[in-house]
């Protein structure tokens, strides 16, 4: 979406553009799918009210939104116990809830101390925060076992990685860009408030349609060559020369491309130190949305099962019921090694655990293992281990000669989301326009 | 060296072997060079008394050793002050020295609690240690500013990376494999005790010579294809099929190869989470080893200059004087972006700072920037950020179908050293022999 956004902006500015896409479809981490005749998103799907660029682009492309279903009780499966809760407050001990409240306030304060320009390395406490993992920070600052574990679950759900693998500074920046934990994890008022009628992928598809034959599919870039005048992009079957190149791929994919004029060591270091999160997205269809009748809204958060995070994905006409959810972090890596049948058994067992025996008889099951996607290498987003932001972060948006960098990882608002991808595409396009030649 | 060792072992076992080498020379992180007519090592060069595999292989190949020069005082340039010291004990405040002594004893005890099998993820405190960076651990356990800073300098010199980028568990495992900090950093009795007459690279060269035309140079591997019967390796110009494949490259290089039968997500995750250290190795030649006459042994450790670690590299006949040293960690990345002239000026200024005005007039200067080496992506060794060892580490030596893994990063003793490379090559070869078909 970042690349398509760049191309559209440049075309509007009167430039000739060409989009090279590795896959046989556009959209990257947006991906269409189907379950029981119903269109679904195998990739990103939600939009929050603060994500104004995505809303604007959807409107532009004529894709409407509808609200995430939230009426009813959520399920918390935590430390071996299943409970139901309404509102935002899960059923934990009073002490844990008290500590979680303090924790959120502290994160809110710390993230507010970061520059609003997407340069967390310039924060007063950047060095100290970047020396810590989120886990080592939790161990040092959160006392109750329940609050610790809940903080882990939530962050795992947001970043699809274990808290011990992520820099605390990076985590705070992610919070800042996503307007805090509540906005990041919430439905109403948050990043999961609305969905797109017909699926989020349509937005990318329609953006690509406007670019007509300027989009070439099945064209993985193998090498990039630069000289004083031009930049040349090499695919298996062709070479394309241009004045400027915008690379809109996750950092780890950029690291697999050969550059004849070597990138600065700092840029390479960054590319090789930003691994992707790990997640398997799964849809399960039922004849009816039976959970609704029993007062559930379909949402689950869990730290003791495999299918960790679940939402209701039932279509508006309720002709069938659908649940959508995620296996994230280390669980995704472990379950990626299973057969589909074993994974299926596990997911259904988890749904029975959450919603009772009615969950045992689905009519459809569709999974998308992002850990095995060659052209993303994971989802939702790249993360930074400790020390990467402060050592290499400041090169992330710096052009290298005629190469400019886009992609949601380079955003300064809503990094990790479509909205961040769009922002990065607009920024990269303006760099190119400003550079002129 | 790992690949060559595997090939020799397999040849001895009666197998047919082929070694594909990306570069125009064998040796990988061993690399020959020359300064003022004197052969030098642009890559690894030392051998310690505990590195029995390397000693044995050198003997086998007829390469002799000679001791690192250590007679005289070492230089410590620390927090803006230059001092000279003899024996192992630098000139720090008594309190700092006391704390460093305690620190070393603690590390000694903790590393001794790790399994001797190279499986640190199985240690009792693995999860906790792997949640910390070395830096966050230092901040929590070392109090005096001097001791903290000295711990940073030493670890930066060993791993060529900033303490905030490395898992504390990985660091302890590195200590264990290298027999503790003293052995890792020391000359006499340690990993820098001896050097090879004519250079360390000769060992690899002579190993390759014994393999005759079974070694193909300039043959970077682009893709690997597996089926039930064979594994096929694809280069730009040819395809080679075999029963078994041993990959002896750093993890990040393995991540750039395309596998038709996708590797397990866990293996990919590991490859994409083990970045290489950053180092520039520099030799400076003088008419005479003037520092010796002034009572210096040529060794420097510094935390306040750029050319952080220096050793005497003068040939035995003393027909000229040579200093060899390193710019490591973030400094290497920063100085890699300079012109060679600016780097030269900085290095000479640093040597003048350490040894006085006589250092200002070198007769030769040779540098090797490992951060820009396409086929190593850094030196001396890959490291693991927090959370990688406990989440993905246990797959590091597990074959994937017909693919076996060698390289110093997979060693269980002396990982990061030639000795570890040899151990890994022997292990991978025996896996192949045991697998038979």
Describe this structure as you would to a colleague.
The structure is a homodimer of 437-residue chains. In chain A, the strands form six sheets. In chain A, strands 7-6-16-17-18-15-19 form a seven-stranded mixed β-sheet. The first copy, chain A, has a four-stranded mixed β-sheet with strand order 12-11-10-14, with no helix packed on it. A three-stranded antiparallel β-sheet of chain A has the order 4-8-5, with helices on one face. Chain A folds into three domains: 2-64 and 197-275 and 377-435, FAD/NAD(P)-binding domain; 66-72 and 277-372, Alpha-Beta Complex (Polyamine Oxidase, Chain A, domain 2), CATH 3.90.660.10; 91-185, Guanine Nucleotide Dissociation Inhibitor, domain 1 (Orthogonal Bundle). The first copy, chain A, is α+β, with helices and mostly antiparallel strands. The first copy, chain A, has helices at residues 2-12, 52-60, 94-112, 126-131, 134-141, 145-159, 168-177, 180-185, 201-210, 251-254, 265-271, 290-293, 330-336, 340-355, 388-392, 418-435, and strands spanning 19-20, 32-35, 38-41, 46-47, 65-67, 73-78, 81-85, 194-196, 215-216, 221-226, 231-235, 239-242, 245-247, 258-259, 279-286, 296-302, 309-312, 321-328, 364-369, 403-405. Chains A and B meet through α4, α5, α11, α13 and α15 of A and α4, α5, α11, α13 and α15 of B.
């Amino acid at each position: 979406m970042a690349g398509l956004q760049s191309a559209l902006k440049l075309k509007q500015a009167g430039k000739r553009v060409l989009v090279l896409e590795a896959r046989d479809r556009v959209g990257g981490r947006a991906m269409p799918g189907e379950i029981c005749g119903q269109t679904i998103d195998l990739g990103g799907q939600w939009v929050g009210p603060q994500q104004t660029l995505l809303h604007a682009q959807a409107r532009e492309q004529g894709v409407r939104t509808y609200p995430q279903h939230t009426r009813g009780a959520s399920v918390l499966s935590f430390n071996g116990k299943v409970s139901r809760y309404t509102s935002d407050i899960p059923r934990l001990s009073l002490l844990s809830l008290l500590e979680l409240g303090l924790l959120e306030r502290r994160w809110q304060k710390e993230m507010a101390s970061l520059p609003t320009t997407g340069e967390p390395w310039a924060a007063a406490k950047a060095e100290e925060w970047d020396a810590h993992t989120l886990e080592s920070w939790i161990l040092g600052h959160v006392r109750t076992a329940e609050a610790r574990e809940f903080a882990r679950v939530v962050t795992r759900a947001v970043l699809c990685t274990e808290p011990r693998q992520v820099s605390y500074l990076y985590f705070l920046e992610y919070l800042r860009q996503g307007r805090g934990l509540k906005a990041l994890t919430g439905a109403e008022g948050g990043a999961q408030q609305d969905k797109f009628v017909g699926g989020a992928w349509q937005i990318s598809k329609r953006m690509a349609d406007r670019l007509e034959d300027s989009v070439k599919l099945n064209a993985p870039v193998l090498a990039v060559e630069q000289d004083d005048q031009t930049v040349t992009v090499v695919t298996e079957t062709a070479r394309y020369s241009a004045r400027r190149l915008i690379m809109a791929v996750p950092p780890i994919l950029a690291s697999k491309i050969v550059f004849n004029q070597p990138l600065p060591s700092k840029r390479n270091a960054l590319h090789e130190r930003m691994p992707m999160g790990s997640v398997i997205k799964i849809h399960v269809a039922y004849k009816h949305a039976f959970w609704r009748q029993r007062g559930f809204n379909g949402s689950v958060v869990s730290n003791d099962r495999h299918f960790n995070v679940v939402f209701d994905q039932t279509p508006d006409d309720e002709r069938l019921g659908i649940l959508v959810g995620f296996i994230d972090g280390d669980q995704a890596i472990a379950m990626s090694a299973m057969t589909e049948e074993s994974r299926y058994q596990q997911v259904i067992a988890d749904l029975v655990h959450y919603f009772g025996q009615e969950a045992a008889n689905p009519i459809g099951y569709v999974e998308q293992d992002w850990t095995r996607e060659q052209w993303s290498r994971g989802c939702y987003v790249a993360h930074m281990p400790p020390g990467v932001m402060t050592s290499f972060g400041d090169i992330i948006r710096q052009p290298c000669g005629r190469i400019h960098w886009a992609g949601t990882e380079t955003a300064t608002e809503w990094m990790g989301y479509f909205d961040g991808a769009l922002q990065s595409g607009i920024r990269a396009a303006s760099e190119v326009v400003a550079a002129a030649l």
